[in-house]
Design brief:
mainly alpha, single chain, 132 residues
């Protein structure tokens, strides 16, 4: 909800910055500004943002998902979806990657990475972990 709210507010702010406000006289400026504010429909904007996010998730468009969910803190707030405290998720991933089974874990995860990632990058990840 927070991400959707932030995206909705950002979209409304953007629309406000590109809006035309009359500068013919004070009366026209006030009228165009009032009209502009009255046209803002938060619920409509939120519905459009939700639809965009859901489409990206449903089509598994990873580039779009990463662009939409461009939140550096995302990994620190998803732990609850895995039965963990939010801050514990990153630590669990790091511990898992550094365990005796790291090559198996990495091999398993690589199969789920987006197809957009060049195979040379994936090979580099595999080779780097195998060299340890």
């Amino acid at each position: 909800d927070k991400i959707v709210c932030e995206a909705t507010v950002s979209k409304i702010k953007h629309n406000l910055t590109i809006a035309e406000i009359s500068n013919e006289n004070e009366l026209e400026a006030r009228k165009s500004l009032t009209d502009l504010i009255n046209e803002i429909d938060f619920d409509k904007e939120r519905t459009e943002v939700c639809a965009e996010y859901e489409k990206a998730l449903n089509t598994r468009n990873y580039n779009k998902i990463l662009a939409l969910f461009n939140s550096k803190q995302l990994s620190s707030c998803i732990g609850r979806f895995f039965g963990l405290k939010d801050g514990e998720y990153i630590e669990l991933i790091l511990r898992t990657l550094e365990s005796d089974n790291e090559n198996e874990v990495i091999g398993s995860l690589i199969n789920y990475l987006p197809l957009d990632i060049p195979s040379s990058v994936l090979d580099g990840i595999r080779n780097q972990k195998l060299e340890r």
